[in-house]
Design brief:
three-stranded antiparallel beta sheet, two-stranded antiparallel sheet
Length: 101
Amino acid sequence: MDNIPVIVQHSGYWDESLRYVNFQVFGILIPKDCNYTNLVLMICNERKLQPDSTSMQIEYQVKDGYPPFKVVDDQHINFYIELKKKEVDFTIYPINPTKND
């Protein structure tokens, strides 16, 4: 199974210029057949969060100044994976999960 390296930026915020700032970062390998539930579990595992008691919003940005895309289901993660498969630079399209309190 092939994996896609993804940078995950977390604990930051979107500023008025639509840039994600003041974040922490880690990397994960997402299987090309990953679904939304598995992505959430991977992020929770890396951040030591309990998936059953954690609600999060996952976003990424395709271009500076663009509003972030929200990832809310399998169709959205499939679109994201297709974008990542075409991009050689693994730092492009980082995921920005925000824990909802």
